[in-house]
Design goal:
six-stranded antiparallel beta sheet; alpha+beta
């Protein structure tokens, strides 16, 4: 029986560690063009992780959404993306979206498998750097196993007990494969 990877070991990182890694990535990208992120614009939120098919576990697993802005004249946004793109590609990120006006770059990968985005913010002069982390398990926590159907299992619809209370109303239907 296989669980299709549902119970593969999760990477382990604390919330503080995840936040530090996200900010470290953003700061390293900003430095590629001599920028500094504005700490007053930080937006961060931790979320409970759910599996691809909405599986849920109670072991403390989490992911993080982290964003911050840096001021830069709008006409330099596209030029600023170029060295950032080179850095991400050198670190194993795959660029999935890229344009210079208005600036937009999306990438995923690296050692931590982060999703990172850099884009022009509204009509102003700010670039927004954002990072979405994968699901992490807190250090020292035993990973809860999530149940999975056997690969050859046929989903069975539960029988509604109210159907047994109904009287037959006509000719009997031929039996179905489910009873």
């Amino acid at each position: 029986m296989t669980d299709s990877g549902k119970n593969d070991p999760l990477p382990v990182k604390s919330r503080v560690g995840a936040e530090h890694s996200a900010r470290e990535l953003i700061d390293s990208l900003a430095r590629q063009y001599g920028l500094q992120a504005d700490d007053g614009t930080v937006s961060k939120e931790f979320f409970e992780c759910f599996g691809e098919n909405h599986e849920h576990a109670d072991d403390g697993r989490f992911d993080l959404s982290y964003a911050v802005r840096a001021e830069l004249p709008r006409d330099e946004h596209g030029k600023a993306l170029r060295p950032m793109r080179k850095k991400l590609e050198a670190e194993g990120y795959k660029i999935s979206s890229y344009r210079e006006e208005p600036a937009l770059m999306d990438a995923k990968g690296g050692g931590d498998k982060f999703f990172v985005s850099v884009e022009t913010y509204g009509r102003g002069n700010a670039l927004v750097f954002s990072v979405e982390t994968p699901c992490f398990l807190p250090p020292g926590t035993k990973q809860q196993q999530v149940s999975a159907l056997a690969p050859d299992a046929v989903p069975v619809a539960p029988v509604d007990p109210r159907l047994a209370l109904m009287e037959p109303t006509g000719a009997a239907l031929p039996p179905t494969p489910f009873g």
